[in-house]
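How it folds
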Amino acid sequence: HDALITGIRDYFQKLGFKKAILGLSGGIDSAVTTVLAVKALGKENVRVLLLPSQYSSGHSVDDARDLAEKLGIQYDIMPIKPMFDAFESALHTQFEGLPFNVTEENIQAQVRGVLLMAMSNKFGNILLNTTNKSEMAVGYGTLYGDMCGGIAVLGDLYKTEVYELARYLNEDDMVIPENSIVKPPSAELRPGQKDSDSLPPYEVLDPLLYQYIECRKGPDELIAMGFDEALVLRVLRLANINEFKREQAAPVLRVS
């Protein structure tokens, strides 16, 4: 907590930045990042965009709005469906007859990235990235979409650590809506989507990633430790093939 606040504040001061902007989705990563940013920079220097898609749940928007109002920060609600529809229309001829897949999911994330970067450029706000270490490790993010940003605040925190940090932030004051903490994590880019559709549960994934990344255990060692062989091979493959994404990610605040 203290290291992240120091890191945000130092990054902005040393580079001559003052104001931050980020996308607030109603999920835990953006909620934690927003609270840390307000503590580091002051509420007058933090602005958030709520960028619901047609697949965003009503409570996600409500949770994001509740947090912004509780923190007293400026927020704007900008639904992305009209822009997503324009992209679909422009690509209709080329995509005709092909099913909805990760391409359309990524377009939604990239539309959000364009809007956030436009606001960043126009008003001189630095975009805070909200990707966590678990997602970055296995490539669960969209280049030029939710991976945009000037600095990745949570990039050195595993998802399970983000949950712990959220609970810590709420100890004195229930600032982060409980629903943001307890609901199943989701990118909300298709109907009923949950992170667990694509990834092992974070309480399973994170211990494996920790042993692989921090402790430098290889596949044979991980399997000998009791991790499921199929899981080990799948996760290590994801980690290795997504190096190109990490090379293009925002700079990460290192706290481990």
